[in-house]
Every structure is written in C-alpha cells, then in structure tokens.
Design brief:
Blueprint (H helix, E strand, L loop, with lengths): L7 H6 L7 E5 L3 H13 L11 E5 H6 L2 H8 L9 E5 L6 H9 L6 E6 L7 H8 L3 E5 L5 H11 L4 E2 L1 H10 L4 H15 L4 E2 L1 H8 L3 H14 L2 H14 L3 H23 L4 H6 L10 H10 L2 H20 L4 H15 L5
Parallel strand pairs: 1-4, 1-5, 2-3, 3-4, 6-7
Helix pairs in contact: 8-10, 9-10, 11-12, 11-13, 11-17, 12-17, 13-15, 13-16, 13-17, 16-17
Amino acid sequence: MKIAPKRIPSFLQTPDPKARAILVYGRDAGEVQERLAALVATVLDDPKDPFRLRELGASDVKKDAARLRDEAAAQALGGGRCVLRLRSVGDDLTPTLRDFLGNPAGDALLLLGAGDLSARSTLRKLFERADNAAAIPCYGDTAAALERIIKDELAGADITDEARGYLLAHLGADRMVTRRELEKLALYMDGEKKITLPDVIQSIGDSSTLTLEDIAFAVGRGAREALEQALARTHLEGISPIAILRATSQHFLRLHLVRGRMERGEDLSAALQSLRPPVFFKRMPAFREQAMRWKLGAIGRVLELLGAREVTCKSGVLPAKVICDRTLLEIAVRGGGKN
C-alpha cells in the first residue's frame, strides 16, 4: 500500500495491522531514521530491547536469503512481538522480499530503510502494490514542517525574523542534521531566550549546508574559481557527490519557479516572495541576478542534466566525484552569461 503524505503522521502512530513489512525510503536520511524509530515504538516499549529488536544488513540477506525468514519467525526470550530492521535495501532484494510477502514467516514487523528510490524502482513498486506491505517516502521537510521542528527544538525562545529566515534557508535537507544543529544552537545560547542572526551564524555557520549553498550559487553565476574552491571543501568534509548535485538541483528548481512566474507576467519581487523557504537576505542580490539572467529553457536543461548525472553517479561507470565536478563546471561555464 502506498501511504499518501497526509496519512503518514497517523500511520506512524498506528500502522495498518495488515502491513507485515514497511519500507521507509527517500533522500532525507535523517527523516528515514526518525520514521523507522517511530514505527519501532509502536511495537516495543523499549526501542533498544535486545531480545525483541533485531537488525540485518542487506548484504546479510543477499548472502543467505533464508536468514530473513528465520529471523522473522524467531520468538523472543520472554515473549512479545518482535521487530526486524533491514538496513540499506535496494532493488536487488526485490525477489527475496516478494517471496517473503507471498508467504510471511512469524509475526515480526519487518522494517526496511532505503535511500532515494525512483518511481521505476521494483522494490518501491512491490511495497506500494502489496496488500500486506506499505511504502513511506521521505523527501525532506517542507517550510511548514521545518518551522514546527524549529519551534519544538527551541521551545520558549524569542527568535528574530532574520534569525528564523537564516535557519529556514540553511536547514531542512536532512532532519537528523537539522535537529543536531538546533540542539547545538540551544546549547550555544545557554539559557538566553533572545536568539538573533549573529547567534545563529556563530552556532551553525560552519554547517556543510553553507558550503553546498556556496557551490549552487557559484554554479549559477558561472564563477569557476569559487566553484572549484567550494568543491574542494565539500570533498574534504566527506559530503557525497550526489548530495552536492541535489543541492544544486534544488537551487535551480527555485530559479525555475521564480523565472516561470516572471514569464507569466509577475514582477521579480513578487515572484521571489513566493519562495518557501525564502531566500536568505544576504544571498538575495545574487539570487535576483541569476533569476534575471537565466532563461527558463536553460534552467530546465540544467535540471535534466543534473538528474541524468545523478543516475550516472550511481552506475559506477566513473568515480562519482569526477562526474559531479565535471557536471558542475560544465554548467558554470554555460551559466557565465551564455544561456
């Protein structure tokens, strides 16, 4: 069964009893882990119970497919329903999981965590179509969801508009990272209730999200030297090439939204005000310039190229770092005023 976004909160609290296996997937790894933990809590009072919570890696099942059935059927010492978590699954496990869903063993709840799965993914299709399974996507927090997380993590704080805008612009790609950065900010404030922009910059200014944003803006303005420097920093920090490509895609998608509104007759200022989260004010001059310079068709071609190169990164034909760097430099050259 395919769980629609509006149904996800209630499903996480009370999963459909027919669902023997639940797949949680998406590019937001932090949200995937958070939702898996919520599902574990619907079965176990103690989420770390060593007798009722078992974990397997995808490689374990690939080596021995029978182990999945054995672990699912095993009874816990002391009784009670068990949870079996399967990590880092992909389409290569579809046949094994199809066999399991056709004739489930035991009564354990099987929880699977996966990265981004396209609509063509055989694993995703299996879980969306099966009556005794469910698929839950995690595509990153919306502006409204990010607002709620900020409110929860900084409960009771008086956050200035500039500080809130900075948080909305720089967090949200990964929920786990978002919560960690907000916890760090709360510790930095040490009980102070008034949170200002300098406080936020001082606390999370070294976040990798800033470097990713530097890359995206450098690509958009065709600044090759700045791009090469920012790419070097991200590689030293261990940020994945796919994350870099996705951050750049997000930047160009926002440019596409603004440019589309402009070509339908809106003025630039009105189009910019429609963005959620809003552009951080210090980035606004650069974003305005890029929105004026890039044509809608050129932005569309960039988005297509970034999507295609992400697929190539996953194919293993060339090192992902090489593909990422070449792609962004190619776009930067194109974006230096010739689009």
